Every structure is written in C-alpha cells, then in structure tokens.
C-alpha cells in the first residue's frame, strides 16, 4: 500500500546487513589475488557436450565448460546436465542445471507441476522437436510439422544478431548485447534466443508498459525492453526510469509479481495464417529479461539474465493463443473456483474511520439503488494497525458482529485486509496473541545469526512469517480462525503488502528501543504534511476555480494546462560493484530493480529461512506461499466452501489459490487504459480473476473519469471501487451521472452472470482465459495484434470503452474482416463496421459500447436484482444471435455457486439453426429457476407465422417479432431447464 510514501519512512535506523552465506552454492570466494568478477560475460567460453544418453521420453546430456572460467558475475560452474523430456504432445521440458544440484530450485510442495504423460512415443510424435549442437552446446526448438521455418526458440550463435557494446540504457553496460554465450554461474545465468524481427511477444510481468500488452522488442525507433522480475512494493510503475533510455527504452521496473512466461504469436505473410507458442522459465531468482533488436539486425532477441537458480524451461506448442494459455495452466495448476457472489460489486477505501462510516456506505448505496455485494475495510479496522485485530473504539467487536450480521441478512458479504507483517511486542505489558503464538511455534524469518528479523511496517517494528517453517501454515490458519471467532464473520480475505514489504532496510528493529517505535501514522495520506490536495487530472484551478467539476457553465474543464506526471524514481546501485566472493545483499550483476538495492522496501536478501535457503533465492515466492496458506486456512474455517481471496504479489500457480487486484494505481485516464493490459496479462498468467481499483486509488478522481471507469470495470472479472485515505470520496453514489452509469453497467453485469460463471468454470476446468485479446479469437488478422484498448469477454462479447476525457464518441475495430456480424448489446442492431480499421461509435457519458458476435448464445438472468443471491433466485432468459446461416452455439455451467467441486452441476448446451433452437441439459444439478424469455436475433427477415415450444403452438400473445432487427422474442413461457427444450418458428 502506497510505496510512494516509503521514502519518508527511511529515517529509521538502518543496520548493516550481515554477509553470512546460505548453504546453497554461496560458499566459494574469489582468489585473494583476483580482483573479483570480471563483470563481462562476452568472453565466457560456453559449454560443450561430453556425453549424452537417450531416455524413454527424451535424452540426458552432460556438459562441461568449453574453456577457462570467465567468472563474469560469480563463479562458473564446471559441469552441467541437460534433461530433455517430451512430457505431452504439446509440451517439451528442457532443464539445464548444475550436475551437483547445489543451485536453488523451487521445491515441488511449493509449486507442484504436472508430470505429463507416460508415453514413450512422444519422442517421435511430439509437436515440438529438440535439436542441439555439441561444440559449443547450442539448442533450438522447432515444430515437427515445420522443420525448416525459423525455430520457436534458438540459442545458436549463427541465428543471433551481431553483438553491440552499447546498452539499451545509455551508460549502463549491463544492458549491452555484447555477447551471447551460455553462462552458468552461482550468481549469474545467461541464455539468449533469437526471435523473428519485431516479434509479437506478450507476457513477462507483472508490468505496466507504455508499449501496451504487446511487448516492445526494439524496432520502429525503440531500443527494446528490460523487464525485471523482483517482487516489490511499488505503486504501479510505468516504464520507470525511462528517461535514462533516451526516451526509447522500455525499462520495465519490477512490480508486485513475477511471471516469466511469454506467448509469441507468429503470422506467416505467405499463407496469411498464424500460430502461437509459449515459453516458460520455471525459477524464482531475481532476473532481467531483455527484448531487443540491435541496429540493422534481421532478427530480434530475448535474453535471460538470472541471479541464481537454474535454466529450467517449458515450451508449449499451442498452436492457438488460447491453447498456449491452457497448456501453461495444465502445467502450473488451474485457477481456483470463484464463489458466485465474488462477481458482484465490491466497495472499499482506506479511510472509513469507524464501523458507522462503513455502514453508512452500505446504506447510501442501497438508497441510490446501486447494487453492492461486498463491503471491505482497509487497515483502519485494526487496533494499533495490527493484523487479526479490530480497534476496540472505532470498530468494536460486538458492533462489527452486528454489522456483518446485517450484511448477511441482506445477502451481502464482508472482507477485511490482512497485511504481511506481524507486530513485535514492544514491552512486557504488551499483549498481542499472534506474535506470542508465532514465537511459540517458531515461525518468524531469521537473521543470518539466528536472531529474529525485525523490519518496519504500519504497526511499527514487525516480524514476518517464514512459510518454509513447519508450523507456519497451521499458525496462519489459527490466526484466521481466532479472528473470525471474535465476531468478524468475514466471507473472504484481502492480502496486501506481501512482496513482502518493509519500510526500512535490514533488521532495523534489532537492538532498537522497541518502546520508542513510532507507528508511522504521520505519513498517512490526510495527516498534516501529507494531504491529498491535488485537483483531478487535467483540471486547472487557476482558470476554473476550486470546484474540480467536470464542467463549469457548460464548458469542459479537462485539458487546460494539466500538470505533468510526477518524476520517476531514480535508480540506485546500478552498475554493480566488483566485490570479491558471493554477496547475498548486492550480487555482482545488478538487476534493474527500480529501487536499486534489492532489500529496499522489502525483506533483506540475506534473511534466512527455516529450510536453510536465503531470501535472495526465494524472495519472489513469498506472496504465493502466503496465498496458499490463506486459501487452506479459509477452507479449514469454512469446510467445503470456496475461499475468496484477493492478493497483490503473485507468482506462477498463484491462480490456484487467489485472485488479484492490479495494485495501487492512480486516478488518471492513463491508468484506466492500463487496466485492460493488466487484466489481459493475468489471463496468460492463469490468474484470471483480476481487476483494477476502479476510479483509481491514489490521487483525486473526478466525475467523468469515475463514471467511465465504473462502466469499464463492470465488464472485468473483479469489480471493486477503492481509494486512498483523505482523497475525494469516489463511491458511485457521489455523482448522479456516475450513479446512473453504474446502475446501467451493473444491471448488464448481473444479467450476464451465467456467462461470467461459465467462463470461469472453463478456466478452472481447462485453463481457458475468460478475458481475451482480440487476436486470440481472430489470430490471422495482423491489425489486431497490438489492440489493447478493446477486449473480448469470452468469444462472444466485444467491449469498446471510452478511455479519454471530453469525448462523446470512441473508435474501435470490429474483428472478422467483414465476415462476422456484430450487434449492439442495447439495440440489437447490426453494426455497419469498417473492415480491418476503426469504426467510430457513439459514446455519450453514461454509455459503454458492448457488441454481440454472431453465432453466439447466452443464458442470462432475466431480472437482475440488488445482490447476486437475489439475482440467482430469479428466472432465466436466453439471448441468441444467429449467424447468416442460422448457426448459433453456447453453453452454460450451473451449480450452487459456493461448494468446492466436485459438486452437483449441470451444463446447458444451446444450439440454433434456421428456424429452430434447442437447449439440452446434462448433469445432476437441479435447476430451480425457469426459463421465462427467449430472444433470437437474426431469426428471419419476415414475421413467422407459427412459433412452438416442444411442439406446442404458442399464442400470438406469447411471442413478438421486430422486423428491423430480425428479432423474435418468446416470453412468459416458464420452461423447465432440467428438461430438453425445442423452440421452432416458420
């Protein structure tokens, strides 16, 4: 939360970081007469094959250094093993590791990966083929069906560009492509692959990139991307330190999560067909991933630079974008099942100072008739800002119990925050059971000397759970249960600050006077010296006065001398020092961490875990391990009920345990647009239940921005309005225009709940992404490859939001190159769309464009209500949009909405042809609600003479026809969805 405040907190005492090494390959030092690492990988010798052995499903290759060790940023490891395994028909595993197995690898109990198929024929049938050269060792991956086209992954020197001594970042030699050998050292690993020139690359995050969802590979005047993976508490940095790249390099500073997976989409100009594949590096080490194209190069490249671990790669054959994403999910684990109520609207802010103010929001939302499903509280809830507590004055336990009971009685829910750090007792009279219990169970992170590691977060000096300790998960579950038993009957948990965040460098509480520890409320927004007083983006108070209104006397106020964006943070500690031996705190290769020193704003890299591993090796895993513990704790608290969990820091497989919000964004139009690429990224990362802080978290929003954003987020998976302490209130009832826009958008969202629910069932069953970039569904249309200001919900709904101020129209492209009909959601009219270029659409304030793809069929809730439970109790409707030939197809997955599968369920298959529509149920879930309304678009160009349901002719009062939109509506029929249904017309 609000890393932008951390600079003010660094006044705290900073102690020296100990240099004690871990037992994992950090024990050697450079010779006394050696000046340390060379800091130059270009002269490294690479490796050569010394032996190979065929296996049942692959081969094993032994490698040795091909020349004198270069010790570029560590100590060269002499002997490596390459294990090649054909795991499935579409998945190839290439694992390059140190033969002695001293480097850190992720334990299987933390991220269990699927084993693949036991099938010896995969060596000859696999869609992917491994090739290698022995001296030096180089490998490349091709498709079985296309052995002669450019490989999918290619480390051969002959395939790579010429080297360049200049870096992506001027003056930073660490970003130069001055050599491409395979380097495998204890603290530096490097592997480079050629890419097609100007390749279509997606993924590698978490990141907000000004280049968009499609990553910048360094063509068309740009120098490329340095994507750093190192989880840190940073408020949604955009191309941070980009000015150091002469405004051309996308320096993508690390954000909350680390996801080393990318999807490449290749278009063949000759065949006009595309194929996708995926590449996943399975490792937790801090890293830089470079995407660049040297001058005059015929190819682009990707280069991995790691601070440790191994080169463990998985390749996915696709060949469609959706298949790549599904194949990745099959490996790391499929997303958790979401409870139905999680798809409702959520409301939160940091700054509801007591239970009465929190309750007032619930009252005001209902008075405005804006549906509210879940009420949240931020750290205002806590006593002394301590986890698992409620303040006895402002949030008394008995009043919270009553308040939550009121929510429950109205089919609503409550979610509190849980921060990562646990407060340290400050004196002998201090009482805080979570800390005392954690001490008893020995679950805290340690300094290298075995003492308690003490950082600083909101409650003062703090300890941090060590998820590698034997008792930590049980301790965490006990804390969740005890908190609930105080009367805080929460429905889910919000995990924040779990990178993990600390406001000081090192164990700053060690040896400190704990009784003098100051709770840093002085740095909270809204306190003297830190007021949130900025006017909304684009507003000039000198010209327009103090109101901050969207219009004054009918004139739009946005855009008059708008203030520049705040400067990016400086990089510190880049160009790493040549210190002898292994340094856990400042490795010789300095990844491009936006905070410079790796331990800034987080737990120190020399912290020791119970298993003996050090934080440097496992830092990126902290959030994932907390998510797993919380998910399991909620399961133990409510057996059989789906845990609802939203978390900030994520890692591959996080989606098995949690959803995600996109962090501490800013109330600016740019950030609303960025939320689309953020959601698209997390579909690829297999964390599909994701959304942004609607209307923006930091700074002051305004009426127009908030109204547009409330509409956009209604068509995203996770839908929450949240903002910072002391900023302008932005609950949707605050402005009538925002209230109207919200009511309209939420009505559509709740009517679409069966569609959302089915998409997420398919995500949990198959890994299919619910939110899709346009090219996922239309892969052979190059004009779509960079589109990230529109998106698809499933295959059938196209969303085109307004992302700029002061406009009443929006431009959007309609996929299909003229072969697909798109109908307006509201009017059902066919859009007269331009082919392969933008069409201008009306978009007055309060309207978001949504279009229906032909050939689609939706099960809807016919009467959306105030809550999800009430909506689910109402009748169903069908909306079918037939293609020109009469075809339409859709499905709906139904169950009780809360039980962890396997549970009774029924799938409805909806099929249409000219003159007929069928619904076929399959399953064992009893559907209590009837189907009351059926709408068929494109049914005919003239009114039918006869309409029947299951052979029974309908009276003229039971159906209507609109010739203008070829719409047949059957109503008042009350059909049983547990039985087959046929509707016919002629």
Chart the SSEs and their pairings.
Elements: E1 47-54, E2 58-65, E3 79-88, E4 91-98, H1 122-125, E5 128-133, E6 138-143, E7 153-154, E8 183-184, E9 189-196, E10 200-205, E11 224-229, E12 249-252, E13 259-268, E14 273-281, E15 287-292, E16 299-306, E17 311-316, H2 321-332, E18 346-347, H3 355-367, E19 374-377, H4 397-409, E20 413-419, E21 422-423, H5 433-441, E22 455-457, E23 460-463, H6 472-485, E24 493-496, H7 541-544, E25 551-552, E26 555-556, H8 615-618, H9 622-637, E27 645-647, E28 659-661, H10 669-684, E29 690-691, E30 693-694, H11 703-713, E31 720-721, H12 736-751, H13 753-766, E32 771-772, H14 774-777, E33 791-793, E34 797-800, E35 809-813, E36 822-824, E37 838-842, E38 849-853, E39 856-861, H15 868-872, E40 876-881, E41 888-894, E42 906-913, E43 916-923, E44 931-937, E45 947-949, E46 952-953, E47 959-962, E48 967-975, E49 981-985
Parallel strand pairs: 11-12, 18-19, 18-31, 19-20, 20-24, 24-27, 27-28, 28-29, 30-31, 40-44
Antiparallel strand pairs: 1-2, 2-3, 3-4, 4-17, 5-6, 6-7, 8-9, 9-16, 10-13, 11-15, 13-14, 14-17, 15-16, 21-23, 22-23, 25-26, 32-33, 33-34, 34-38, 35-37, 36-38, 39-40, 41-42, 42-43, 43-49, 44-48, 45-46, 45-49, 47-48
């Amino acid at each position: 939360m609000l890393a932008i405040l951390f600079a003010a907190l660094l006044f705290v005492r900073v102690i020296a970081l100990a240099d004690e090494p871990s037992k994992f390959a950090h024990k050697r030092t450079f010779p006394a007469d050696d000046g340390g690492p060379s800091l130059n990988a270009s002269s490294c010798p690479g490796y050569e094959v010394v032996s190979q052995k065929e296996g049942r499903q692959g081969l094993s290759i032994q490698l040795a250094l091909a020349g004198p060790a270069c010790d570029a940023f560590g100590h060269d490891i002499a002997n490596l093993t390459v294990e090649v395994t054909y795991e499935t028909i579409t998945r190839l595993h290439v694992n390059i590791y140190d033969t002695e197995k001293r480097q850190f690898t992720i334990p299987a109990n933390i991220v269990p990966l699927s084993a693949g198929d036991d099938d010896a024929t995969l060596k000859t049938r696999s869609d992917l083929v491994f090739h290698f050269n022995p001296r030096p060792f180089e490998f490349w991956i091709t498709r079985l069906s296309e052995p002669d086209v450019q490989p999918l992954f290619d480390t051969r020197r002959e395939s790579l560009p010429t080297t360049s001594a200049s870096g992506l970042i001027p003056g930073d030699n660490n970003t130069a492509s001055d050599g491409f050998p395979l380097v495998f050292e204890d603290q530096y690993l490097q592997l480079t692959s050629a890419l097609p020139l100007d390749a279509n690359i997606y993924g590698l995050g978490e990141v907000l990139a000004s280049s968009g969802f499609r990553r910048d590979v360094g063509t068309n005047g740009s120098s490329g991307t340095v994507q750093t993976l190192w989880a840190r508490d940073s408020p949604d940095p955009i191309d941070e330190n980009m000015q150091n790249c002469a405004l051309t390099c996308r320096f993508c500073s690390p954000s909350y999560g680390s996801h080393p997976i990318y999807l490449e989409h290749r278009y063949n100009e000759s065949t006009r067909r595309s194929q996708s594949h995926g590449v996943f590096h399975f490792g937790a080490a801090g890293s830089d991933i470079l995407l660049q194209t040297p001058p005059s190069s015929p190819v682009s490249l990707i280069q991995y630079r790691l601070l440790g671990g191994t080169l463990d790669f998985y390749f996915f054959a696709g060949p469609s974008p959706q298949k790549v994403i599904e194949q990745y999910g099959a490996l790391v684990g499929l997303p958790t099942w979401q409870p139905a109520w999680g798809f409702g609207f959520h409301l939160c802010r940091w700054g509801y100072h007591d239970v009465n103010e929190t309750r007032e929001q619930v009252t005001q939302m209902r008075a405005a008739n804006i549906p509210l499903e879940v009420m949240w509280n931020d750290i205002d809830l806590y006593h002394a800002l301590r986890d698992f507590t409620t303040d006895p004055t402002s949030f008394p336990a008995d009043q919270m119990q009553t308040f939550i009971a009121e929510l429950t009685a109205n089919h609503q829910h409550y979610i509190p925050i849980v921060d990562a750090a646990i407060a340290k007792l400050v004196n002998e009279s201090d009482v805080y059971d979570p800390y005392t219990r954690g001490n008893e169970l020995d679950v805290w992170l340690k300094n290298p000397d075995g003492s308690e590691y003490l950082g600083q977060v909101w409650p003062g000096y703090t300890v941090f759970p060590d998820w590698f300790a034997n008792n930590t998960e049980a301790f965490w579950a006990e804390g969740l249960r005890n908190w609930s038993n105080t009367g805080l009957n929460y429905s889910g948990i919000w995990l924040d600050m779990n990178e993990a965040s600390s406001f000081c460098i090192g164990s700053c509480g060690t040896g400190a006077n704990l009784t003098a520890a100051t709770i840093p409320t002085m740095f909270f927004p809204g306190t003297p010296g830190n007021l949130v007083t900025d006017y909304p983006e684009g507003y000039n108070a000198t010209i327009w006065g103090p109101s901050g209104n969207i219009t004054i006397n009918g004139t739009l106020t946005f855009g008059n001398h708008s203030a520049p964006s705040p400067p990016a943070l400086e990089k510190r500690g880049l160009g790493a020092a040549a210190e002898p031996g292994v340094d856990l705190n400042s490795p010789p290769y300095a990844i491009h961490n936006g905070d410079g020193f790796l331990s800034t704003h987080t737990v120190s890299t020399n912290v020791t875990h119970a298993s003996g591993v050090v934080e440097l090796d496992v830092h990126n895993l902290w959030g994932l391990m907390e998510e797993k513990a919380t998910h399991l704790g909620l399961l133990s608290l409510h057996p059989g009920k789906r845990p609802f969990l939203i978390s900030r820091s994520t890692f591959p497989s996080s989606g098995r345990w949690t959803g995600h919000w996109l962090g501490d964004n800013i109330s600016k139009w740019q950030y609303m647009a960025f939320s689309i690429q953020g959601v698209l990224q997390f579909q690829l990362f297999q964390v599909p239940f994701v959304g942004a802080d609607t209307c923006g978290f930091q700074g002051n929003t305004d009426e127009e921005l908030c109204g547009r954003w409330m509409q956009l987020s209604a068509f995203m998976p996770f839908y929450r309005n949240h903002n910072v302490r002391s900023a302008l209130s932005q609950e949707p009832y605050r402005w009538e225009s925002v209230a109207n826009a919200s009511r309209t958008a939420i009505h559509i969202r709740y009517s679409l709940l069966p569609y959302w629910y089915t998409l997420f069932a398919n995500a949990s069953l198959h890994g299919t992404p619910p939110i899709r970039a346009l090219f996922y569904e239309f892969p052979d249309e190059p004009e779509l490859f960079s589109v990230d200001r529109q998106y698809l919900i499933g295959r059938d709904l196209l969303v085109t939001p307004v992302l700029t101020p002061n406009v009443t129209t929006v431009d959007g492209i309609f996929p299909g190159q003229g072969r697909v009909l798109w109908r307006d959601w509201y009017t059902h009219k066919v859009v007269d769309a331009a082919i392969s270029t933008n069409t201008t659409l009306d978009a007055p304030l309060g309207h978001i464009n949504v279009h229906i793809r032909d050939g689609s069929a939706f099960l809807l809730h016919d009467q959306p209500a105030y809550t999800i439970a009430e909506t689910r109790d109402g009748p169903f409707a069908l909306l079918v949009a037939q293609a020109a030939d009469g075809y339409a197809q859709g499905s709906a997955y139904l169950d009780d909405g809360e039980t962890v599968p396997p549970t009774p369920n029924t799938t409805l298959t909806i099929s249409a042809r000219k003159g007929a529509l069928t619904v076929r149920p399959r399953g064992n879930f009893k559907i209590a609600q009837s189907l009351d309304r059926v709408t068929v678009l494109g049914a005919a160009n003239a009114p039918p003479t006869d309409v029947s349901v299951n052979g029974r002719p309908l009276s003229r009062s039971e159906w209507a026809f609109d010739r203008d939109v070829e719409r047949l509506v059957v109503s008042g029929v009350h059909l049983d969805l547990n039985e087959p249904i046929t509707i016919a017309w002629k």
